[in-house]
Specification:
The protein is an alpha+beta fold. It folds into 3 domains: 2-67; 73-184, no CATH class; 190-298, no CATH class. It has helices spanning 9-35, 40-67, 158-171, 195-218, 246-267, 271-298, and strands spanning 2-4, 70-73, 77-82, 85-90, 96-98, 107-108, 118-123, 129-134, 142-145, 149-153, 180-182, 226-230, 236-240. Strands 5-9-10-8-7-6 form a 6-stranded mixed β-sheet, with no helix packed on it. A 5-stranded antiparallel β-sheet has the order 1-2-3-4-11. It is elongated and about 95 Å long. The protein starts with a strand and ends with a helix.
Length: 299
């Protein structure tokens, strides 16, 4: 088996630039949020910074896949390795090899791309699937047609790759292969296909975000101090600054992490217990809203 390198320099540089922009954006938003008075803008800046950090992590993952990308070839098939993804394409399944972009219009599915990084899925007007694992755009691509889909690759030495491929096809296979794809185990977790579990997580996160946003908007307009706890006869038992209300958001975050992680641990062992923990997580978030509204009702 021989391996064939890709030209990753351009994609690597552009990816690093994008990564730097996202990190700088996150740092800038955090700085502005710290220096400005508490308001709804504080929440929006914090949310933007969190999204920028997640975006940076995603770009970092894509760059890791780019650095570890490789093509391999033997008498039996072509192998594409891209990060944690691996594809096996039997040579006997390849119907045609083209070096020109097909005339059909391709509809690309949403995935981050940049110069030197051309990875993703597409379909033509007939619904045929195209899988791009390349570092070039336009010219210099190889289009491998199989009965199921089309693979688009870009070995650095295109001519050498085509000559080696022709030679190995003439030699014939030594064993029979199947066209298969192997994904990272993380993407095969059954929870990604469990609508009930995802709904519980999404509802909890939305409630927590709205709670935090509401606190950022309301706290600056509250008198200081306020009664956080009162007796039955109306006597204040706990008086503190309004910013203490942020403890509710902290508690909500702890509930999300604790119940969420415990639920994930039990998911494969006792699924009903996992659903119970996630339902309790949503109930606890709702109870924090009730507690907050009851405090504000007395102000």
């Amino acid at each position: 088996m021989t391996t064939w390198a890709l030209d990753i320099q351009r994609g690597w540089k552009w990816g690093l630039g994008l990564l730097a922009v996202l990190i700088a954006a996150a740092a800038t938003m955090v700085t502005i949020a710290v220096l400005t008075p508490l308001s709804l803008l504080t929440f929006l800046l914090g949310l933007g910074a969190a999204l920028a950090v997640l975006g940076a992590a995603y770009v970092g993952y894509l760059l890791w896949g780019l650095v570890h990308a490789v093509y391999a070839l033997d008498r039996n098939g072509i192998y594409i390795g891209w990060g944690g993804y691996e594809y096996t394409i039997p040579l006997t399944d390849i119907e045609a090899i083209e070096t020109k972009t097909p005339a059909e219009r391709l509809h690309r599915r949403g995935r981050l791309r940049w110069p030197g990084y051309n990875v993703g899925l597409a379909r033509d007007e007939q619904g045929r699937e195209y899988r791009f694992y390349a570092t070039r755009h336009g010219d210099g691509l190889l289009w491998l047609y199989t009965p199921r889909r089309v693979y688009v690759i870009s070995p650095q030495d295109t001519e050498g790759f085509l000559e080696a491929l022709t030679t190995r096809r003439e030699m014939g296979p030594t064993q029979s292969l199947e066209e298969i794809a192997t994904y990272p185990a993380f993407f095969n977790w059954p929870i990604w296909y469990d609508a009930s579990a995802l709904s519980l997580f999404a509802s909890t996160i939305v409630l927590l975000l709205f709670l935090t946003a509401f606190l950022c908007w309301r706290i600056p307009h509250l008198p200081s101090p306020i009664a956080l706890q009162i007796a039955r006869d109306g006597t204040p038992l706990l008086v503190a600054a309004p910013t203490r209300l942020f403890y509710l958001a902290v508690m909500g975050t702890l509930f999300l992490l604790l119940n969420g992680l415990l639920g994930l641990w039990f998911y494969r062992r006792e699924r009903r217990l996992a659903y119970f923990l996630w339902s309790a997580m949503l109930f606890l978030q709702s109870s924090l809203w009730i507690a907050l509204l009851s405090i504000l009702w007395r102000v």
